[in-house]
Sequence to fold (327 residues):
Amino acid sequence: VMNDVEDLGMSSSIDVMDSGGEIRSNVSAEKSLPAEDIANETNLRVSNDGVIGQERMESNDDVEYSSNNDDSILGIQEESPLQASTYVITQYNIDSFFDRFTGNLKSIVSAGSTLDFQGRIVLTEMDIQRRVYNITINKRVNIISSTHDAYIDLNTTAGSLFGDSPGKRFTVNYLGSGSTIRDIYIHNTQVWITNAKNVVFDNVSVVVKNQRVGSGVGVVSVRDNSSYVTIKNGYFYTENNGGSSTLVMAWANHCTFDNNTVEGRGNIGNMIYSTTYNVNSGPYENYPYSNDYNVIKNNVVNNPEGGTGICRSITIYGSHNIVDNNT
Fold:
């Protein structure tokens, strides 16, 4: 199968391979929680959705797979206006909303809620016994920063170049499909969108400097049968991360990278890259995965000194992809 790539004004280098935010207007006020309520989990709205359709799910490592991309299979339903709430997330209360060990959203957060991240949320080795060390979006939520100062640093240190140990990460998985993340800054942290669909990252910055993040998978990785994921109006900067790529699709279809600035310096990999290396196929071991019908457009790509042996501006592996008006 040959690639079908339309280059409609691309001035950066392209390698083509064969395939072989704001708080919503209907929320009257932020849900500001007193410290004692956080500690006792009082005045916190509890979801009644429970665990639905678990028998229809299969799991492989940290990736949850659906055998059918129909929400009705999972029992995911539209939330009622009474369920959805706005929660302010800070360094001091994050473990009231995210499980410290799995990183999953706790039951107090119902689908459709808004998570308003405020200020610095930074994980250090001293914090590891008392703070969450993963953030996993496993429900459909809206993530914003009404104060425009959200800064998340989970201090990722990745393992091998085979992608089997990506380290601490900010994840959106299948159960988080339909989520929107906007106006946050992520530093030295793996961003992992796995087996998810209809997810939007808007005006999100991801900066990695002098830290091993993205080994074998890419710093921002849309992967493992993800579809209709849009990353737009973002800023992505990678410097000396050990030679791994910045903005990656790995078994992603109908996804869009639009109007982003992607920059890098030092020892890094490709700037924008679609690949099938180190894809976790889960139960679909023999599935013919690829990267098809994706759109990469209107991005500004600045790579180090015009590129190195392992760094190209845009590299595409797949079919029927459009690359348009990137500079």
In short: The first strand starts at residue 5 and ends at 7. The chain has two helices and 26 strands.
